Amino acid sequence: MTDIFWLIPFVPALSTFILAVFGKKLPKKYVSFQACFAVFGSFFIAAISFMGLLQTSHESYPLVKNIFSWINAGSFNVNLSLQFDPLSAVMALVVSGVGFIIHVYSVGYMADDEGYTRYFTYLNLFTFAMLILVMASNVVLMFVGWEGVGLCSYLLIGFWFEKHSAANAGKKAFIVNRIGDAGFLLGIMFIFIHIGSGEFTAINEAIGGGAVTQGLATLIAILLFVGATGKSAQIPLYVWLPDAMEGPTPVSALIHAATMVTAGVYMVARMNLLYSLSGTAAQIVAIVGAVTAVYAATMALTQNDIKRVLAYSTISQIGYMFIGCGVGAYGAGMFHLYTHAFFKSLLFLAAGSVMHALSGEVDMKKMGGLRKYIPLTYSTFLIGAIAIAGVPFLSGFFSKDAILTSAYANGYYFVWALGILGAVMTAFYMFRLIFLTFHGQERLAPEVKAHIHESPPVMTIPLALLAFFSVVAGYVGLPVVAGENLNFFGNFLEPVLRGGHEAHISHNLEWILIGISIGVAFLGIIIAWVFYIKSPRIPEKLRTRFPRIYKLLYNKYYMDEIYNAAFVNPTVRGSEIIYDNFDLKIIDGAVNGTAKVTGSSGKILSYFQSGLIKDYALIFLIGVIIFLGYLIIF
Amino acid sequence: MIPANYFMILSVILFVLGAVAFFIKRDLITMFMAVEVMLNAANLAFIALTRSANSLDGQVIVFFIITVAAAEAAVGLAIILLIFRQKKTIKTEDIKLMKG
Amino acid sequence: MGYFLFFLLAALCIGSVLGMIISKNQAYNALFLIVAFASLGGLFGLLEAPFIAVVQIIIYAGAIMVLFIFVIMMINIRTGIPPEKKKWTLYLSLGLGVVLIIELVVAIKAAFTLPVSTETLEAGPVSLGRLLFTKYLYPFEITSILIIAALVGAIVLVKKKEKV
Predict the structure, then answer these.
(1) What are the φ and ψ backbone dihedral angles of B32, each rounded to 5 degrees?
(2) Which of A94, A142, A374, C54 is the most buried (most CB within 10 A)?
């Protein structure tokens, strides 16, 4: 049953190829059908392989299939080979499953767009690249997938490339990612130098066998993590994600919420033995994650663009995933990745539905009271918000709680405190969003109000589906207090995540921590209710009393401006200087100089062609003499 | 019998004289005549050597050379006539059509 | 006796070629050349090639030079050609000439050691004809085509265009 797992990435690959080559001639309906079916096919194969995996014993993890031998250069060998183990299975199912739902949603959302076929081609290409990333059995192939999703991110963010802001956002995403990738590549190089092979099984063996020192592990882990901060939008390379909202909303849901941005978390989980060996790197991961979680949440508090709020929320939630991995609870981090995929994509798609209903409006100041007009969208949005806020019995609660409890249990008290603070802010800004958009006074423009309509079923059914999963998905990972061994998710992943450590705390302590988590969630919701429903004047009063803080938060701590001044402008200026002095003068000068030399020497040589026979004959004679001389002498 | 080397040296002298005459002279007809001189020098060399080699092949070759030289002279002079008709001059400096 | 004839004819030949170089009148040049060819014919006779000697005088001195003289008459240059303005070409040519002589003499030094055979050649028309029609048949035929081509070519070239 598991033998066919290697087909999982290639179904969307085939679809991409067909769409790329023949796309223009295919009718729209067929394109939608093929694109969605391809991803569903992937999901189906993944599901079958998963079930087969459940029946295989742990010793045979991971199942590896070598497709072909790619690079063979002496001792440097890289193969195109895929592996299947619980971690890859979870990721593959999430990517293909959520991907399928979003593909179906896109059929409705992008129905009127001119670039319909191009969109689905890119989306399928992305699915292929992401599946390669999560199923690669060596770090180089994973990097290939890493770059592939970066490329698709660029293509899809800048999908409406005639818009300047979209094109610039695409560029920004790609370039910032590239900076992270430099670190990632260095990490790969060190792996090859000291371990000799990029295969994950070989790396884990080397670590287990003691061939890797702690210092080396730290170095590699940090370098790889730099790549992760780029791809997963953590400090300091997060600046591309808010701008990435220029792309179509389903793209934001798939790439920038559920899958691509979680690649960094997957990478850390895959290399869990490495991170655990180097305690320092794991600590850095946890701290960066925690700080980013709070930092991004503060920025989400003041944004007015509905998608920007969700973007900062994504950055913040990924921070939580890194907290989980950093403190040694890799299973908890992956669990949050899994639940987050559902409710975050739900939130984005629902936001897209709101925008669809309001003919493209994104500014929450121009919304309000929408719950009577678009009830389906409202109810699914609400479910997503409740899930992310950590209200008990929904999925978000279970996963966030698992992370925070592990943080406390492993002694990271400061990280736990930051996590709690972040949870308050998360609940607050999500419900701020709900109240501003769906409740309260209507602040709609008249022509927008005239055209309000609920989205078509092709969009609302995916929303309902995701809402359902946002509720139930958490039940595969129940905490210890609910009963021993009800954590199916964690147990399933355990053979792969051997680097993690479970710290045990007393049941009472665990109940207290759970209580605190629930408490802060409700605290955030209540504060939001007070601010926006009960006394809507409070936000304004706060704004006028603390104008500088407000401005700081609203302008994203001026980070974009700082980066521009510190890095971007000097680079541009430096390039201009080099262009003027080196490129124009030296290189062009050399090329033009060669041409000039050829021209002048030609001119000189043309004196020989005087047209007089005698001159020609003279040269002839000289030639004969020389030739005769040569013959005589030798 | 006179040894061949005398004739050879005579042939060499004639050839060089013809070549020098070709470069010194400035009118077409005399230049052409110098070419004929060179040809004859070669003929002389052929005959002298073929006698030393005791065969008649060289004489047959000279026969052909004379024939071809005659044909060449005919055509060459026709061309000189044409040039004169065009340019009204046989000074070689004025014939510069192939310049550059 | 042979040597005396040889040096006489050789001197005549070289002298007339020199005269051709020095003289500026084309008609005189042609006449000098006729003398040179005649002496060459004599030299051929000395070399036991009677047939070639006669052919040389008939064709070269008789036909080709007559052709030259016809053309000289037709061109009818009255004014002489002024001497070369640039002297250096003269010296260059002379210099090259000297170099060429030296080189060629060195090149033919193998001829200095050729044996002197005492047999007489049978170089009459009969033996030459026999060679011509057996061993050298192809060149013979092709040369005849060449002559026809030259003939037709010369006529076509010089024909004046008819005024239509």
Answers:
(1) -65, -40
(2) A94
Q: For A219, how many CA atoms within 13 A lie in the half-sphere containing its CB?
A: 14
Helices (H), A301-329: 306-326
Position A256 scores a pLDDT of 77
CA distances from A237 to A233, A322, A563, B67, C25 (A): 6, 15, 10, 94, 98
**Cβ atoms of residues A396 and A343 within 8 Å:** yes
Q: What is the pLDDT of residues A189-221, one digit of tens each?
A: 998 888 888 888 888 888 888 878 888 888 899
CB-based contacts of A441: which residues, under 8 Å, 6+ apart?
A368, A369, A536
Enumerate the residues of chain A whose CB falls inside 8 A of the CB of residue C86. Answer: none
| C-alpha to C-alpha distances, B6 to A244, A320, B48, C45, C46, nearest whole angstrom | 101, 112, 9, 15, 12
Residues 6 or more apart whose CB falls under 8 angstroms from that of A476 comprise: A488, A489
Decide: helix, strand or coil at residue A3. helix
B2 Cβ under 8 Å from any chain C Cβ: yes
Integer CA distances (angstroms), A374 to A274, A489, B40, in order: 49, 36, 114
Which residue type sits at A527?
I
Cis upstream peptide for A236 (omega within 30°):
yes
Query: In what helix (H) or strand (E) does residue A76 lie, and over which residues does it extend?
Result: strand A76-84
- The mean pLDDT value for A407-412 works out to 84
Contact residues, chain C, for A631 at CB < 8 Å: 107
Mutation target among A614, A631, A632, A634 for the C interface, most CBs of C within 10 A: A632
- Tell me the C-alpha distance between A598 and A617, whole Å: 26
Q: How far apart are CA C137 and CA A1, in angstroms?
A: 90
Residue B80 is encoded by which pair of tokens? 């000189």
DSSP string spanning A262-298?
GHHHHHHHHTHHHHHHSHHHHHHHHHHHHHHHHHHHH
Residue B39's contacts (CB-CB under 8 Å, 6 or more residues apart) are B65, B69
Q: What is the pLDDT at residue A181?
A: 92
The residue among C81, C98, C99 with the most chain A CBs within 10 A of its CB, best to mutate, is C99
Task: Provide the 8-state DSSP code for A586.
Answer: I
User: Helix A139-157 crosses helix A214-231 at what angle (to 10 degrees)?
Assistant: 20
DSSP state of A303: -
Chain B 14-73, residues with CB within 8 Å of chain C CB atoms: 14-21, 23-27, 29-30, 32-34, 36-37, 40, 43-44, 47-49, 51-52, 54, 56-57, 59-60, 62-64, 66-73
**A313, A275, A268: which is closest to A429 by C-alpha?**
A313
Predicted confidence at residue B99, as pLDDT, reads 64
Cis amide bond preceding B3, omega within 30: no
Q: Determine, for residues A621 and C96 on separate chains, whether the beta-carbon distance falls below 8 Å.
A: yes
8 Å CB contact between A13 and A135: no
Are the beta carbons of A167 and A158 closer than 8 angstroms? yes
Report the half-sphere exposure of A346 (CA within 13 A, side-chain side). Answer: 31
Q: Residue ranges of the alpha helices (H) in A158-199? A: 164-195
Structure tokens at A565: 């001044």
Q: Do residues A369 and A442 lie in contact, with contact meaning Cβ atoms separated by under 8 Å?
A: yes
**What do you get for the CA distance between the two ends of chain C, in Å?**
66
Give the mean model confidence (pLDDT) for residues C31-58.
Answer: 92
pLDDT tens-place string over residues A568-612: 888 888 888 888 888 778 888 888 888 989 988 888 887 777 777
> In angstroms, what separates the C-alpha of C162 from chain B's closest C-alpha?
15
Whose tokens are 């003068």? That residue is A585
Q: What is the pLDDT of residue C37?
A: 95
- Which residue, among A336, A312, A349, has the nearest Cα to A426 in the 3D structure? A312
